[in-house]
């Protein structure tokens, strides 16, 4: 894959990841019934997913999973959140996460450590 194509894939994946993380918070907020407890749950769930993503999924994650398990984890998270958003009547958001989530899954499959927008691929 060319560097511009990798940069575009990384950018789309990043934007989708932000929508995905926001979706996690929205689902936690909804699951706890809203209010102050809902906001606390939203923040906690989002932070948990961000930390886990950073450790196991991010290109520079300390314990980054191998490509196969990383792809499976991305599929489960993307489509779990997409279906959860659909179930809570957040249809547009759900479709965005579900369709654009393919970029996240592709990025987890093809991007190697150090490959991200603007990365130099020379050895």
Shape by Cα distribution: globular
Portion in beta strands: under 5%
- How many strand units? 0
> Span between N and C termini?
16 Å
Structural class: mainly alpha
Strand and helix order: HHHH
**SS element count, helices:** 4
What is the arithmetic mean of pLDDT? 85
Q: Portion of residues in helices?
A: over 70%
What ranges have pLDDT less than 50 throughout 5 or more consecutive residues? 115-123
Task: Report the sheet with the most strands, covering strand number, pairing sense and barrel closure.
Answer: none
Rg: 15 Å
Task: Please explain how this structure is put together.
The chain has 123 residues and is mainly α. It contains four helices and no strands. Helix 1 crosses helix 4 and helix 3 runs antiparallel to helix 4. The longest helix is centred in the N-terminal third of the chain and has 29 residues. The two termini are 16 Å apart. The C terminus is likely disordered.
């Amino acid at each position: 894959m060319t560097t511009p194509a990798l940069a575009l894939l990384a950018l789309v994946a990043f934007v989708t990841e932000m929508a995905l993380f926001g979706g996690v918070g929205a689902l936690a907020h909804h699951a706890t019934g809203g209010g102050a407890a809902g906001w606390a749950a939203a923040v906690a769930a989002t932070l948990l997913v961000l930390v886990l993503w950073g450790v196991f999924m991010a290109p520079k994650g300390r314990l980054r999973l191998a490509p196969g398990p990383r792809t499976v984890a991305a599929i489960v998270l993307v489509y779990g959140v997409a279906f959860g958003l659909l179930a809570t009547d957040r249809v547009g958001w759900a479709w965005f996460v579900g369709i654009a989530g393919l970029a996240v899954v592709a990025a987890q499959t093809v991007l190697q450590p150090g490959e991200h927008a603007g990365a130099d691929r020379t050895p």
